[in-house]
Design a protein that fits this description.
Structural class: mainly alpha
Shape: elongated
Largest sheet: 2 strands, antiparallel
Number of strands: 4
Length: 200
């Protein structure tokens, strides 16, 4: 059982300022909030329920605060683990990505698994791609501009064809059927700073 009213008035003012500052890191403000609620007499279980953490976490924060003070509890020195992929593999992956336009992270995950035998979650793969300097964006749609040289060449060929027809020859025209009317750019992974484009 944690006894309430363990904070001095100075300590309480400091923690209240931390909770009320909008620019404060969310995790640090939450810890300050927990200590203030404990000082008010709330139970660890009740505080844990409202902060969406387990009550052991609240007790741990309390012990750190009582032993080392607010400076120790407000220090957020969390560090992630080491990367699964080596720097050499990262280089190969970057080169592979620059040669294509991957529509989703699952394509990249499949490549990493096949080439390096490494299992990446979807979120882990997205973080890796962002760290390597890639972003998820849509290519720019560029209208296709007719090639004047090819047009001139075709006109010359067509006039030559018409002028060289025999009396028993005729020129026929037919409409082409296209599989799609227009290109539709879709999102994919591309190097940050590049300007991918698709001709429409």
């Amino acid at each position: 059982m944690i006894c309430c009213k363990f904070l001095s008035s100075t300590d309480r003012v400091e923690l209240e300022r931390c909770v009320r500052r909008h620019r404060e890191d969310h995790g640090i403000a939450r810890r300050a909030n927990a200590i203030l609620l404990l000082d008010d007499g709330e139970s660890c279980a009740q505080i844990a329920k409202f902060l969406y953490v387990d009550d052991d976490t609240i007790r741990c924060w309390y012990k750190i605060y009582r032993r080392d003070g607010w400076e120790a509890l407000s220090c957020d020195d969390w560090r992630g683990g080491h990367s699964l992929i080596t720097s050499d593999q990262e280089t190969k992956l970057s080169q592979w990505l620059e040669g294509r336009f991957c529509r989703c992270a699952d394509e990249v995950r499949a490549y990493i698994l096949e080439k390096f035998s490494l299992h990446y979650s979807h979120s882990g793969c997205v973080k890796l791609l962002r760290r390597l300097g890639f972003e998820y964006r849509k290519p720019m749609a560029l209208p296709t501009v007719a090639d004047e040289a090819k047009q001139t060449e075709f006109i010359a060929m067509y006039e030559s064809l018409l002028n060289g027809l025999a009396d028993d020859e005729t020129v026929y025209f037919a409409d082409a059927v296209h599989p799609e009317y227009q290109n539709k750019p879709a999102f994919g992974w591309t190097r940050k700073g590049t300007k991918p484009a698709v001709k429409t």
